[in-house]
Amino acid sequence: MQSVSSATAQGGIGGFGFDNAKAGVGGAALLVDVVSGHSNGGALTLDQDASGGLGGSTNRTSNGGFVGAATSTLHFDDTLKAVHSALVTTNVTATGGAAEAVQRISSDVLAGNGGAATAFADITATAVSLDVTATGGRPGTAFVGGLAGSATATAIGHAGGQVDVHVTASGGLGTASSGLATVAASSLTGTIHATASATTVPGVLVGHVDADASSTLKGAVAALDSGADVARAGLGLAIAPMDTTSQSVALITGAPVAADVAGVLAANAAIKAAFTTPSQSFFAIGELGGRYSVAGHGSELAPVRHRG
Hints:
By secondary structure, this protein is mainly beta. The chain has one domain (2-307). It is built from two helices and 16 strands.
């Protein structure tokens, strides 16, 4: 038997502000534990998708409208059912609303920020296939442009057999774009994978960065393996703290702020010695790392990568 349960929420669109009227606000979208189901030993699919509404525009002196944030959160434990599903496939998605362009370009008119997106899932089953995706909203354009919507995606998967978990966080297209993807899982065998990206407008020296961390789980019958991966990407923001506990780590900040650059140079004489020219540029600061999982058996892979 195959069963499917799905839910979608879409925030409303903000109205247009005519003749000094304020631009309308995009509606927020919130889904919390909306989908559920059972398959009586078959395959169960759960889909939950939230999208924030677009912010309104204006043709006069008002600022661009605020956009709707999107949050999609799901907790589900199939092992509480009388008959367990053979496989639970889950897709949880959140997309922040985009801001519209302001038609009157003036120094006193501000564009709206992109909507934040937060996606979270915690799934327990005999076998788990889990995808969690968050995409930040695009900011509006004006004389003073808005900030990109942040994206945060988190997934937790528990399975007595196979688990495959993929988490993607893509910051909105614009200034201060950022994405944070975190995944944790325990199982007999499986893979976990976290991807984050940040992108700004064309024509900027450092316009895109992304980070990718993945690892494998290999447990034994009497001892399930567990692990956690994290990927973070940002542009023009403070760097993330060092991560010394996750199984795979990929962190990158493009166009880092001056204080973070100074901190790295002060802490590492070798790096400082390599940057001695007066016109030096620092494109990015990052961290890559990997280690063996908590209760692994045999060889494991923990590939990590970041790119700008």
